Amino acid sequence: MSAAIKVAVLDYGAANMVSITKALAAVGAGVVVAADPSEMAAVDAIVVPGVGAAGSAMEHLRERGLLEPVRDWIEAGRPCLGICLGFQVLFDRSDEGGVDTLGLLAGRTAALVDAPTLPHIGWNSVDFVAPHPLFDGVPDGSYFYFVHSFAPAPADESVILARTTHGRPFVSAVAKGSLYGLQFHPEKSSVVGLRVLSNFVGLVAAGAASARTTTDVAEVI
Amino acid sequence: MLARRVIPCLDVDKGRVVKGTKFLNLTDEGDPAELAERYAHEGADEIVLLDITAAHERRGTMLEVVRRTASRAFVPLTVGGGVRSVDEMRDVLRAGADKVSFNTAAVAEPALLTACAERFGSQAVVCAIDARRLPATEGTARSDGAEDAASAEPRWEVVTHGGRRTTELDAVTWAMRAVKMGAGELLVTSMDRDGTRSGFDTELLAAIAMRVRVPVIASGGAAGPDDFVTAVRDGKADAVLAASIFHRRMFSVGDIKRAMAAAGLPVRGIEESGA
After folding, report:
1. What ipTM, to 2 d.p.?
2. What homologous superfamily does CATH list for B5-262?
3. B268 and A16: CB-CB below 8 Å?
4. What is the pLDDT of residues B21-51, one digit of tens each?
5. Domain spans of chain B?
6. Which of B108, B56, B110, B116 is nearest to B91 (CA)?
7. Does B186 touch chain A (CB under 8 A)?
8. Which domains, from first to last, does chain A contain?
9. Are B45 and A191 a contacting pair at CB < 8 A?
């Protein structure tokens, strides 16, 4: 295998960084914790983790000067995985505090509807809408670990990979090009969670390899 | 639908997993991180680490054990024992825990639950309640003022400091208050059953679970798979916790889950447990 894929996990405040960094390392990625945009320079992919409120997350990203670099990164089509709150902030706007978020995916984050309990905490099944390499080797309906009260509703339904039901169904996974978003916590979801992270790292590696090939071809032409 | 959880509990003393009977006569059961990793592979839905000596020896929590465990077991991690402030809770969460459980400190200062819930969210705040069943003739004054010694209804008293101190608090009343103060989950241990392998106190569990809307974790007395089924079905518990039956390999997490699935309870990943 080629040199390890390097992933920057954005550190923008209170999030537990131990589990996500160790889980990425466990699936073979080189991991840096980036509290500063300069630490994103030499990596192949970024991960936006997070538990908390959308407003304070945006504030912390801005304070650390990460907001524009993250936006530029994703707009350039470079690989990014958003987890939980880090998934929600990829969309236009969040009802949690009524704040504008990154606007990289069209849609709005809203409170779960008809949920029997809030927050939605625990292991729930993830039902696939469309097959995707991010879920290679993961059986449809597998249980993943959730901790949240809000979920985004993508305006473009073609990005939806999976839904989960707590009260009414909500979107639990999306993909658009090299941008991936998960409402659940793969780093807390045991075997299937590590498999999703491993698939993400594999997709980044494949993307890096094909980018190199494209460059080679372009040079030949 | 949310799965019912099976939670191995690691009682930790000086960095080692220990187990006693009714909180006494401790024996060494292994390394916390190693055991936690094994349980995660077996299909554990969560791991609880309890620093059992912290409350009375006034030690801080075992951040290093938490860090090592969170680095190897990729399932939710709850840590309890000796956390007495918002700042101490922050340190435990930063070390890799998802939730912190409060016991003695919450009884002494219920506002601590509120302060921690406001800062980190109630999903991260667990109130652990150690309860001892009162003899049928003995009644305790409930904090609502009702005095009902003659009632046949069973009563439980909250005990603290690892079971060495009584409080005269009614366990059900305290459970309801703890939720009101900010606890997002209750970990209910029967002192009478702890380590005895005589089954969970389902009356205690149901008495609490019927009166609160947050998840209740049953603890104390697990002997075999049937007890886990009973704790959920009769005790109305959302999750079931046990220690020695897992440490001593009497049953694997998979054995328990297969029994729960056979009883029609929603459980996660019995096919991936490898047990």
Report:
1. 0.87
2. Aldolase class I (3.20.20.70)
3. no
4. 555 667 788 899 999 999 999 999 999 999 8
5. 5-262
6. B116
7. no
8. 6-220 (3.40.50.880)
9. no
